């Protein structure tokens, strides 16, 4: 009997390895084909299935370099930062520092003075699921003023002026993507922990997971990709400022796969928090949202995902808790169409 059990275990191990290799080959083939169609866009991809990691990458760090992109190359993860921020919010919930249905009034910095019409109207979960009704930063105007660093002129005063001058929540309870909502969540975290956002994310995510290439204020490191806007022009990485919790973390495929591992493990602090973020907080005919994450379902699967677009890069993170897989796609060009095509092809032909 012992021999039979050992033989069965060996067969299962060989089967799992073979299955994993087959998946990695299929995904690599999809990435390679898309790169051949879009050779100006460098790609780095990390994939995890049952804790087994796979990586593939195509292209160079920039047009003048012969250094190839790899799993350690640094990209802007842009709005994937929101998953990190919402996970921190959920960790604070587990630690009984806040509740998702708490109103934001008592947790905002003292500089914010909410109009009577706004008091006890906006929940923390409303901010995190893009349904607060608050006005947002006008990125169109910011880009006109400074195409390379549009958020550089956004300060804490900019935010307090927007909020303090708001007298009505015109579309409260309806989806409207919000940068200011996640900026406020970052400030709420700072108040409850009495630390800066970059210190909190270091304490709760970066240091515990040993994410050596997940960067906040200082991202002047080697192996950094050069971003390109949708027209192919070189685009600077966005500098760290008050809007950081909404989209200013930099990272790479390797670190994001490590984060996915923790996310999929219900025994970790990050995994326990992720379960909270995956609850349904908003639904309309077009979308379902948790906290900082989109929820997509079909007859067989529930997947959680978040896209990101900076001025010069595009990205997506996606995972299926039930089937224990996840992947990260990083592009050094703002190209949401290519990112969406990669998602669709990988999911429809490999993972569905």
Automatic annotation (TrEMBL):
Keyword Manganese in annotation: no
Domain Beta-lactamase-related: 41-338
Signal peptide positions on this chain: 1-20
UniProt key word Iron: no
Pfam families assigned to the protein according to its UniProt record, in alphabetical order: Beta-lactamase
Domain of life of the organism encoding this protein: Bacteria
Alphabetized UniProt keyword annotations: Signal
Family: Belongs to the beta-lactamase family.
Listed name of the protein: CubicO group peptidase, beta-lactamase class C family
